[in-house]
Automatic annotation (TrEMBL):
Keywords on record: Ion transport, NAD, Potassium, Potassium transport, Transport
Domain RCK N-terminal: residue ranges: 1-122, 231-347
Pfam families per UniProt: TrkA_C, TrkA_N
PANTHER family in the record: POTASSIUM CHANNEL PROTEIN 2-RELATED-RELATED (PTHR43833), TRK SYSTEM POTASSIUM UPTAKE PROTEIN TRKA (PTHR43833:SF5)
GO molecular function: potassium ion transmembrane transporter activity
Natural source organism: Methylomarinovum caldicuralii
Protein name in UniProt: Trk system potassium uptake protein TrkA
Gene Ontology cellular-component terms listed: plasma membrane
């Protein structure tokens, strides 16, 4: 598959890093030759310098033979125009564009078959907003990710001493809760992955991933953490695109305060938001936080576009008594440094965004992908096609699929039914199998297994 990545900023570089590791034919277009040289030194890719929307530049990048365009420059209009040019002049099969302005994304008719030639619109701000909203539904969760159109969710939590299942083997989960469909799919202990088994004992501090229908999530979490009280009072640092979207989505369900440094921006936010208290000031100002009763805040979330400011304000909020602090961090080096030790949770815009892209490059019928643990692991949802004898999966039990040890089947979604994926569970045509891959190098094995029987796997 030949993929053109337009834009070599943070998101573009993250996309290239993921794709280059999987041996795709990648060409990157950017205006900055220095950035392109750095990427060439790191990855086995092609590069072209120039404006990503100009036809001659796209031609030099090989757009005529491209299977996919990923337009992620910092300019919405450039991304839209590049996709339109690629469609009109070269009929590129699939075009993905990052679009940040809500003025574009709020109108669904603007894109698609009857509109502008963008097949998939990705808004990192909306993805982050949805991610934060998901976390707030389940106090104590570190990730909440949807599969099968929300019928099943993947949740990660840190096990806490005193939870009924902590210091006990995994098999006791279904002794405590015999009717649940939940399945523990992975455990990370001090950063190292463990393949879960019934005899595996969960220890305090383990990062535990499980899949479950939404109605069962809180009950399973209580087994791993005890009782977490619902959030009520939220405080956000940063009134940019993300801050505004998050406040708008949450202000009618929570008590929300938003801190914005720019007085003009704060005035506009106060006019646009209906039920949010907008404060003008520096979120790293100790006196401001104390005056706003930071010790009574359930969640403090630093989501400015400045990593250092986010880290400092989150650390200060935690020191002053905020129940849980979250920091948005773009640079992976910073994220690895502060997570767990200095703040409760780090959100990476790149990791949250990359899954939306990866499902469009995965071979086989993959309908959902989530990149996990800085891209080292992955959770995906594949659909079984064909009939027994022709398909590599239909008609076979889980144990007969030949899955490598690092691929952990979670659940099967069959119509409206959610089924635990046991060793003797037989896969039927149309089943959605949700799997956890502890190592991304195992992806080709899964892709070949779930390749449509009428299509030869690459």
């Amino acid at each position: 598959m030949r993929i053109l990545v337009l834009g070599a900023g943070r998101v573009g570089t993250s996309v290239v890093s993921n794709l280059a590791q999987e041996n795709y034919d990648v060409v990157v277009v950017d205006k900055d030759p220095a950035i392109l040289r750095t990427l060439r030194d790191r990855f086995d890719i092609g590069t072209v310098s120039g404006n990503a929307a100009h036809p001659p530049v796209l031609e030099r990048a090989g757009v005529a033979g491209a299977d996919l365009i990923v337009a992620v420059t910092s300019d919405d209009e450039t991304n839209i125009l590049a996709c339109q040019v690629a469609h009109t002049l070269y009929r590129v099969p699939k075009k993905i564009a990052r679009i940040r302005a809500i003025e574009y994304t709020r109108n669904a008719r603007l894109f698609g078959p009857q509109g502008l030639a963008v097949d998939v619109v990705i808004s990192p701000e909306q993805i982050i907003s949805d991610f934060i909203s998901g976390l707030l539904k389940y106090p104590g969760a570190s990730q909440v990710l949807d599969f099968a159109r929300g019928r099943v969710r993947l949740v990660s939590v840190q096990a806490v001493a005193g939870g009924p299942l902590v210091s006990h083997p995994i098999r006791e989960l279904h002794q405590h809760m015999p009717r649940v469909h939940a399945r523990i799919t992975a455990i990370f202990r001090q950063g190292h992955p463990l393949v879960p088994s019934g005899d595996q004992i969960i220890e305090p501090g383990d990062e535990v991933f499980f899949v479950a229908p939404p109605a069962e999530i809180k009950a399973v979490m209580s087994e791993l953490r005890g009782r977490d009280y619902a959030y009520k009072r939220l405080m956000f640092a940063g009134g940019g695109h993300i801050g505004k979207r998050v406040a708008q989505s949450l202000e009618h369900r929570f008590q929300v305060k938003l801190i914005e440094k720019d007085p003009q921006r704060a005035t506009k936010l106060a006019a646009d938001l209906e039920n949010t208290v907008v404060l003008v000031g520096d979120a790293a100002d100790r006196e401001l936080l104390l005056n706003e009763n930071i010790e009574n805040v359930d969640v403090f979330c630093a989501i400015t576009n400045d990593d250092e400011a986010n880290i400092l304000s989150a650390m200060l909020a935690k020191k002053l008594g905020a129940r849980r602090v979250i920091s948005l961090i773009n640079r992976p080096d910073y994220a690895d440094l502060v997570e767990r030790n200095l703040v409760d949770l780090v959100i990476s815009p790149q990791e949250a965004t990359i899954g939306s892209l990866l499902r469009h490059v995965r071979r086989g019928d993959v309908v959902q992908v989530h990149s996990l643990r800085r891209g080292a692991a992955e959770a995906l949802e594949s659909v079984a096609h064909g009939c027994p004898g022709r398909s590599k999966v239909v008609g076979r039990t889980i144990e007969k699929l030949g899955l490598p040890g690092g691929v952990v089947p979670g659940v099967i979604v069959r119509g409206k039914e959610v089924i635990q994926a046991h060793h003797d569970t037989r896969i039927q045509e149309g089943d959605h199998l949700i799997m956890f891959l502890l190592d991304k190098t195992l992806i080709p094995v899964v892709e070949r297994l779930f390749a449509h029987p009428l299509v030869r796997a690459a």
